[in-house]
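Researcher: Watch the backbone:
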Amino acid sequence: MRRKVSIIGAGNVGASAAERIVMRRLADVVLVDIVEGLPQGKALDLNEAGPVDGYDMRLTGSNAYEATAGSDIVVITSGLPRKPGMSRDDLVQKNFAIVKSVTEQVARHSPDAILIVVSNPLDAMAHTALKVSRFPRERVLGMAGVLDSARMRFFIAEALGVAVGNTHAFVLGGHGDTMVPLPRYSTVAGIPITELMPQERIDAIVQRTRDGGVEVVNLLKTGSAYYAPASSVVQMAEAILLDEHRILPCAAYLQGEYGYRDIFMGVPVQIGAGGLERVIPITLLPDEKAALDRSAAAVREMVEKLPL
């Protein structure tokens, strides 16, 4: 029997993720959106691309959640983007209501699913999905570290003129201004970048990684990044669907790991068929731990604003 992935939100991130999932022949996909005709049209368009691109996975578009029943994975991309004049607190409250409603429907129709949360503010929305669904922490993950690390990997490859496949990068913490890129654990063919470039260039890469999303928004003028976020979602979904036991940086609900409890933070985790298999511990220097503490404090401050 084919696997099933439902994506809530048929905007650019959701539709791009759906395309990549069927192109890789990972699962059938259900696209759900509140806009009448939008998920249906995108699903039909992608189905009609199948004969050309050679995939037989089927896509379904719907405005109701019944079509998502029995999903193996549900990706939650729903939410409002931050608009001019809107405070971060405003965004938290508005997207909390959206993600809460979505999660209630998803949990009702797919009680055994694994949730991948993409909606922003990411760490707070993953916390919302966990508490509302009442799923075990193993089955609720946030997509952040994969994206942030991918951006850092590209910047490293660009700076050194090497293939991106030779690069690895480590970004921990909350998904936002307080994220913690770790140059010591970022390598090219196993060589730490601290041995390959001067500190000022590393500092520039770290800052560009933190500003990665903003840089894209400023260039686009309207809208935000979606190709890289979609690819990051699919890498996580693939690790689950193929039971890869793959180590990826993801937002996970920590219960004492790294010294934090009852909070979602970006950390390296092992992912397989059941979702989160284990959190991977790494040794942090005092300044790195201090930066992660600041990131945790920012995430906790946001979570405390949630009416849970």
